[in-house]
Amino acid sequence: MTAQRLVVIGGDAAGMSAASRARRLRKPGELEITAFERGRYSSYSACGIPYWAGGEVDGPGALIARTPEEHRERGIDLRTRTEVTELDVDGGRVLARDLETGTERWHGYDHLVIATGARPVRPSLPGIDARGVHGVQTLDDGQALIDGLERAPGRRAVIVGAGYIGVEMAEALVRRGYAVTVVERAAQPMSTLDPDMGALVRDAMCGMGIEVVTGAAVIEVRTGAGGEVTAVVTDAAEYPADVVVLGLGVRPETALARAAGLPVGESGGLLTDLAMRVRGHGNIWAGGDCVEVLDLVSGRTRHIALGTHANKHGQVIGSNVGGGYATFPGVVGTAVSKVCDLEIGRTGLLEEQATAAGLRFVSATTESTSRAGYYPGARPMTVKMLAERRTGRLLGVQIVGGEGAAKRVDVAAVALTARMTVEQLTALDLGYAPPFSPVWDPVLMAARRAAAAVAADAGG
């Protein structure tokens, strides 16, 4: 029997999870696996780069789950520094270019996995490619940033963008002794939160000595005589900088797939079915940061770049390619982060997202503490909850507070997945002891207030 050929484009979470799962299910004589990765590393945690930069963890080795050599030992022909430049869907082949030698070669496939990830947003601005301006998407980016920090002539850093990467990098550079300015176009940092919750993050960051500039659009990165960065210029002011870090988010890396005519959604991510098969193509699969996924709350597809999803996508794809059956039902949009001592969690929809989905809702916000108020170490915590009008179905939760705040959002993520109402949420039998929570957990307190808002709205 001739072995089938599996080709994987992308050597990180989704791609190598798919290859590894398929390898476990199918013997080498049944399935030949070739994977292409344009970088030098495989199966690594990009989420750990800010903590590497801040000196909390070692890198890059500590961030690598499995090296290219380890994948090869397990029967996967992983070729690093090799970029796929063209897909021939009708011919069932890909054109791969060796970035070291420049040689190109076509490779045929019976199954194709597209796991090309996402690319950082890098606006076309004067000076944006200057020495000292860094993105933080890959381990190579992380190493370049750390090398740049060691060479920087001073200790002034400007972070452009105040999303997850922006606030995490702000913390990392504060830890390194830098004077940090964060510049954000929106009215508040963390656009993954509603503005009123983002304002809490801003207040906390300012209290940590971070200068937070909002409502400001960057128009130029100013450079010195040697081409090195010297300042970031907005439409209102100029901020001196020895180092600039871009934290403007990412977009799906789907140029290759789009050129081959594969379907993409509104945000540019590949569209798949529940088995992670590209729609309309029985032998092409896609997963990770290059796809859009179903939002179980709104019923729409969204692009959410998270390693948790990518690994699950890979497991699903590998199971299906390997002869089994698995599906990825969707997400509720759960994410956590922190900046210094402040923890941030969210799941479900923001007010703007709920409105865009045509949902009518009420909201409730409560202030509580992470432990019983009399117990040492109790930290303040704010919880905001959205519920659908009339039905009371939970739509979203945001939490900002001290230690113990962020992971409380997991309770809400389960409730969203189960399509629970806020009234049902109030009755959950959560664990209690003074070192862990007040008698009424902050999430349950918010649910009680949201349930009261639903009832009042119905009565009105």
From TrEMBL:
<feature type="domain" description="FAD/NAD(P)-binding">
    <location>
        <begin position="5"/>
        <end position="310"/>
    </location>
</feature>
<keyword id="KW-0560">Oxidoreductase</keyword>
<feature type="domain" description="Pyridine nucleotide-disulphide oxidoreductase dimerisation">
    <location>
        <begin position="337"/>
        <end position="439"/>
    </location>
</feature>
<dbReference type="InterPro" id="IPR004099">
    <property type="entry name" value="Pyr_nucl-diS_OxRdtase_dimer"/>
</dbReference>
<dbReference type="InterPro" id="IPR036188">
    <property type="entry name" value="FAD/NAD-bd_sf"/>
</dbReference>
<keyword id="KW-0285">Flavoprotein</keyword>
<dbReference type="Pfam" id="PF02852">
    <property type="entry name" value="Pyr_redox_dim"/>
</dbReference>
<dbReference type="GO" id="GO:0016491">
    <property type="term" value="F:oxidoreductase activity"/>
</dbReference>
<protein>
    <submittedName>
        <fullName>Flavoprotein oxidoreductase</fullName>
    </submittedName>
</protein>
<keyword id="KW-0676">Redox-active center</keyword>
<keyword id="KW-0274">FAD</keyword>
<dbReference type="InterPro" id="IPR016156">
    <property type="entry name" value="FAD/NAD-linked_Rdtase_dimer_sf"/>
</dbReference>
<dbReference type="InterPro" id="IPR023753">
    <property type="entry name" value="FAD/NAD-binding_dom"/>
</dbReference>
<dbReference type="Pfam" id="PF07992">
    <property type="entry name" value="Pyr_redox_2"/>
</dbReference>
<dbReference type="InterPro" id="IPR050260">
    <property type="entry name" value="FAD-bd_OxRdtase"/>
</dbReference>
<comment type="similarity">
    <text>Belongs to the class-III pyridine nucleotide-disulfide oxidoreductase family.</text>
</comment>
